[in-house]
Amino acid sequence: MSDATEPIQPWLEDSARPSSTNREEWQAYWQACGLSWRTEPEIDSDRQAFLAYRVSILPDIVRGIYPFKDIALSRADLEWLLLHHEDDRGPVQWNDERQRERLGLDVRGSDLRRVHLQALPLARLRAALTWDEWTGATAAQRLQAQAQLEYCDFSHAHLEGAILNRVQLQHTRFTNAFMEQADLSEAQLQHTQLTRAHLQHADLRKANLRGATLREVQCQHADLSEATLQGCDLSKADFQHATLRKIFAQQADFSLACLDHAYLHDAHLDEVNLRNASLQKVDLSLVYLTGASLLQAQLQQAYLRGAHLEQADLRRAHLEGADLSRVHLAGASLQGAFFDRLTCLDGVLFSRAAGIDCASLADIHWDAVNLAGIDWSVITKLGDERQLQLDGSRQDAPDPHLVSQAVRAYHQLAHALRNYGLYEEAHRFLYSCYRLQCRVLWVQARQRKISWNRRIRLLVFWLGFLCLDIFAGYGYQLSRLLPTYLSTICLFGLLYFITGFILQPAHPLTWYAALALSVSAFHGQAFWLNQPPANYILVFLTLVERVLGFLFTILIVTVILRRFLHT
User: Is RNA-binding included in the keywords of this UniProt record (predicted)?
Assistant: First the structure.
């Protein structure tokens, strides 16, 4: 490492300098001189004199004067300028902390478009005004100071601490570049190539990175507040402890990225891909993740208070210890997600108003999570049932796997609610489960390509389910028992009265006698006021009512067990 106070001129006394312009010979020479970053032949003396004169010009922001304003520079020019920078002290060596306060090469106002600048030591490069200079300059003065760097190639270049704020860098290549602590705030970086670039502690506030490629980029502790990252490829990127507040990253790809401890408050991440991403202890409060994919994402201890996750894919996501209070999850898929007792679900919204578009909850690992803070009354149908699309127009049979998944979702949720003492909510979801099975039987029975035997069998089962629903709500609707009992007594009393009037006109049953006969038959012991009936119709009716009474007794026992013993 060269000393910060000594100039470096390792080639001046070297007699082996190539006399031709052959690039390979010059590259070998620069390698021998320990200047591996130099690749071009030495510029001629006239060009050297011109550049030396330009370097001597003092910048004047007010008048828009800069050493290389409106001058097109080549890589060979920059190599010579770097070596003679600051009276032959050479380029800034970022690894030497004593040199980090030095000023880098001043290329403000220059034209470097489409120049290949790979592996050059451009630490502390000045391509725009600093923040202090910017605040006191006019719009015209700010524009004059910006270097033109579109389509440049900075691959493997050292740009640590470079001043590139608000510079036009569209389609520029920064592959494997070293850009720690660089100032890229409000820079125009559309469609740039930043694969595996090192941007630790860099300033990218309000930068426009639309369509850029940032695969495996290192952005630890970087500040990307309000940056635009729409459609970017950020797969396997590392954003640990980075600030991404209010970024716009719709449809970006963060798959396999690491965002542990990152700050994404109020970020716009609609339809973003976060599959298998690590988001542990990340701040996602008030973030917009509508339609995003977080399949198998690691969200342990993440802070998502008030986040919008409508239609998001959270299947098999790990949410242990996460704060999901007041999170919007309407239409989201949480199948197979992992919760634990430290997960906070207070006020979480699994559906929109009136239970519309509920989340899918099959196979969730509830693991003693607190479910008391959720308003379950607004949920009328789980998203797992919605996926079956059991509307009146459906002619084909629903997918058996989806049917099993929907039934399983209701049972699992009811079990979790019962474990937490929420029996009323559990009974309501079990009732919805049986109603779902009844609807599935009806759809299956209406299929065209099934045998009549199977159709009749399905219709019998469907009719049985329907009767159980009407008469007792599958044992979960206690309020239906009394109307069912009274309706049955009245119906058979009316039949007894009509039958006796028709078959025994001389001694017909009075209406109160018919009702008394109906009550006694329903409870298993028919009695007659005068004499047993001479016709078999009344005998048959009493037998039918006795059977119904026996079934009704079973329903009462079932309701009592489920209502009071919580079975």
Answer: no
Structure confidence at residue 439 (pLDDT): 79
Q: Cα-flanking dihedrals φ and ψ of residue 258, to 5°?
A: -115, 115
- Interval 447-460 mean pLDDT: 81
**Two structure tokens written together for 124:** 């502390």
Going by C-alpha positions, the residue among 213, 206, 215, 174 that lies closest to residue 190 is: 213
Whole-model pTM: value is: 0.81
Quick: pLDDT tens for 24-81.
999 999 999 999 999 999 999 999 999 999 999 999 999 999 999 999 999 999 999 9
Phi, psi of 248 (to 5 degrees): -115, 100
- Taking CA atoms, 503 is separated from 195, 498, 517, 540, in Å, by 96, 9, 16, 14
User: Which among 476, 510, 541 is the end of a domain?
Assistant: 476
Q: Which residue range is the domain that position 418 belongs to?
A: 400-476
CA 99 to chain centre: 43
Quick one: how far is CA 196 from the chain centroid? 24
Structure tokens at 498: 């009509």
Which residues lie closer than 8 Å to 233 by C-beta, 6 or more apart?
Answer: 212, 213, 214, 215, 252, 253
- Exposed / middle / buried, residue 254 (Cβ in 10 Å: 0-12, 13-18, 19+): buried
Of 476, 497, 513, which closes a domain?
Answer: 476
471 closest CA partner among 414, 553, 407, 542: 553
**Counted domains in the chain:** 2
In whole angstroms, how far apart are CA 511 and each of 174, 488, 545?
96, 15, 17
Q: What is the pLDDT of residue 1?
A: 40
pLDDT score at 553: 78
Closest CA to 237 of 256, 263, 224, 223: 256
Instruction: Give the residue-averaged pLDDT of 327-356.
Output: 90
- Residue 391: the pLDDT is 53
Decide if 448 contacts 397 (C-beta within 8 A): no
Closest CA to 566 of 408, 413, 414, 367: 414
